[in-house]
Specification:
Layout (H helix, E strand, L loop, with lengths): L4 H11 L4 E4 L7 H14 L1 E5 L6 H11 L3 E6 L2 E5 L13
Parallel strand pairs: 1-2
Antiparallel strand pairs: 2-4, 3-4
């Protein structure tokens, strides 16, 4: 599901007050981190992930999003916002 600009803006506004729930360490995107992101996004739908300090933060965020089949909403500094809508009881009603 590709997000349009209105949906991205809505999700960025919803994520503004959130704290990062998952942090990438020096090992980068390991199996354990992918499992943690997957379980966290399953529960919360919209999460922030604190990225590694190295270069290629956008690439790290895209890789994390594709690993858990989520949409990358935004990357600001070292924080990425990921979204994966639940099929049955979603908290978010996205604008069209």
């Amino acid at each position: 599901m590709a997000l349009n600009s209105h949906q991205r803006q809505f999700l960025k506004a919803q994520a503004h007050s959130l704290k990062p729930l998952v942090m990438l360490g020096n090992d980068g995107l390991s199996e354990a981190v992918i499992k943690e992101i997957d379980s966290t996004i399953e529960h919360h739908e919209l999460i922030k992930v604190k990225l590694n300090a190295g270069d290629g933060r956008k690439d790290q965020a895209l890789e994390a999003a594709s690993a858990v089949k989520a949409e990358l909403v935004s990357v600001v500094g070292r924080v990425a916002v990921l979204f994966r809508q639940r099929k049955d009881d979603s908290r978010f009603i996205l604008p069209r």
